[in-house]
Amino acid sequence: EAGVVQSPRYKIIEKKQPVAFWCNPISGHNTLYWYLQNLGQGPELLIRYENEEAVDDSQLPKDRFSAERLKGVDSTLKIQPAELGDSAVYLCASSLRRRSSNQPQHFGDGTRLSIL
Amino acid sequence: SQKIEQNSEALNIQEGKTATLTCNYTNYSPAYLQWYRQDPGRGPVFLLLIRENEKEKRKERLKVTFDTTLKQSLFHITASQPADSATYLCALDPRSNDYKLSFGAGTTVTVRA
Questions:
Q1: CB < 8 Å to B89, chain A
Q2: Looking at the partner chain, which of A43, A56, A109 has a beta carbon nearest the beta carbon of B42?
Q3: Is the pLDDT of residue A99 over 70?
Q4: With 90 as the cut, is the pLDDT of residue B30 above it?
Q5: CB A77, CB A46: distance < 8 Å
Q6: Could you tell me if B106 lies within 8 Å of chain A, comparing CB atoms?
Q7: Residue A103 forms beta bridges with which residues?
Q8: DSSP string, A57-98
């Protein structure tokens, strides 16, 4: 099966500019996650979708971050405006629609964001 | 506060030896614990899941133990190979209604030929 696809792989922008990341999950996976990973740290959840509904966005900085998952498949994560501290790897993952903790999560290779 | 702690130091071992990684947690009562492998520039890849009522789980050269009394999981790579060099992450379920995983910072393993 095809894995989780993310684009772009790398993005370099100046601070205060907008940026968007795209994710295509594994076919049939209803649950989609966006994570942020800083160097030397584990992934931290930003938002979780069940189909098109954002069921957990408690860790998403809503003043500058937004996400959408139209039609319950692909998803985009946007930052506007970007700040220096947003430099990180943004990972997308998907899993079957069950209790997340007992299901493997399948990750894409992430977008590495650098803010100048 | 809740914490997940993995070996703070990177692990360097000789090919053929067994690598043992630890994952300690505090203020969690996880029902499940997962282990992932992450290579540089890549996303994490799922390896194993162990339930709270399972003491041990094996998959090929990998073995995971889960001790809810000690609040610890051990991850073993037996007969290690240079291809096993990577960062290994543990992740657990906080047993909340949020149904999300909390990840440790990972332990980097380097296997010397």
A1: 42-43
A2: A109
A3: no
A4: no
A5: yes
A6: yes
A7: none
A8: -TTS-TTTEEEE-GGGS-EEEEESS--GGG-EEEEEEEE-SS
* Interface membership of A4 toward B (CB under 8 Å): yes
Q: A55 to chain B: nearest residue by CA?
A: B98
Q: Do A56 and B98 touch (CB under 8 A)?
A: yes
SS3 string, A11-46, reads EEECCCCCEEEEEECCCCCCEEEEEEECCCCCCEEE
- Nearest residue of B to residue A33 by CA position? B100
What's at A6, amino acid-wise?
Q
> Which residue bears the tokens 């696809």?
A5
Report pLDDT for B95. Answer: 64
Q: Which residues contact B22 (CB under 8 A, 6 or more apart)?
A: B6, B7, B72, B73, B74, B75, B107
Looking at the complex, does the CB of residue B108 fall below 8 Å from at least one CB of chain A? no
